[in-house]
Amino acid sequence: MANANDPQSSIENLGGSVISAGEDIVNTVITNPIQSVTDSISDTGFGKALRAVGLLPGAVPTAGVGFTAANWGSKTDLDWRVRLSVPSTYKTSPVLQPLLETDGFMFPYTPQIIMEHSANYNSLHPTHSNYAFPAYQNSQVNAMTIIGDFFVENEQEGRYWVAATHYLRSITKMAYGASSNAGSPPPVVKLNGYGDYVFKDVPVTVQMFTVELPNDVDYIQVGIGENGTWVPTRSSFSVVVQPTYSRKSVTGFSLDAFVNGAYIVDNKGFI
């Protein structure tokens, strides 16, 4: 009530409290400059109050709240993160071993995905007519672009970055020359992400990828290779994938089953 009756006094009291806290810090600094600032801020609560400025009620964690360290590795069935599978013939590669811990090449942070489906029509233009008649030709699922950021803060994440880059380099090449299965095209992999009704075992081929190596970030050395490898602490991956279905599976396609969601349940991969 005193504040309401005498606002000028309230302001002076508030100013006096702040000045008093500041004087305590200054006086302690003079006698013990090494530990003084930390102790004074802790004793007066000035630092805590300063950090709490702008926080809404209830935003400050209460005592006893447990925190769990984050990690990228997970093979649980409920993991909905976006990932591309690793072909069985690639799993013996020592460079790609970090990808096996996440059950494939996984985007560690939620990526941006651009989907495009189209129905193609030819326009029929009768003579002396104001309107064309669209004649249906076919439908198709166009290539999708997946764009995701990678942040590297330690050697483990750096090894994953190297494995992801090597995976994309490998998955876009055919078996050529002295390869064991010479003549085979780049393999078809499975795209999964966001649960059953978004991407569930969708067969895709990687048509193109880009990896950004910025010039305005730090680089971390990773103990891979005779002379080591340096990876950026922040980079962006862009991967273009094309849904690819075999002739046999397309021949047995049923629109009735697709509309009813049967192919989702049967893991056919049709989208």
Q: What is shown here, in short?
A:
The chain is an alpha+beta fold. The chain has helices at 2-5, 7-31, 36-44, 46-51, 97-100, 155-171, 247-251, 255-259, 262-265; strands at 83-84, 105-106, 112-114, 117-124, 133-141, 144-151, 189-193, 199-211, 219-222, 229-232, 234-243. It has two domains: 2-51, no CATH class; 83-265, no CATH class.
Q: What's the count of strands?
A: 11
The class by helix and strand makeup works out as: alpha+beta
Q: What percent of the residues sit in helical stretches (DSSP H or I)? A: 25-40%
Rg, nearest Å: 30 Å
Query: What would the average pLDDT be, to the nearest integer?
Result: 81
Largest sheet: 7 strands, antiparallel
Q: Which regions have little confidence, pLDDT < 50, spanning 5+ residues? A: none
Measured by DSSP, the beta-strand proportion falls in 25-35%
Helix count equals 9
What shape does the CA trace take?
A: extended
Terminus-to-terminus distance: 68 Å
Give the tally of structural domains: 2
Identify the strand order in the major beta sheet: 2-1-7-8-11-6-3
Helix/strand order: HHHHEHEEEEEHEEEEEHHH
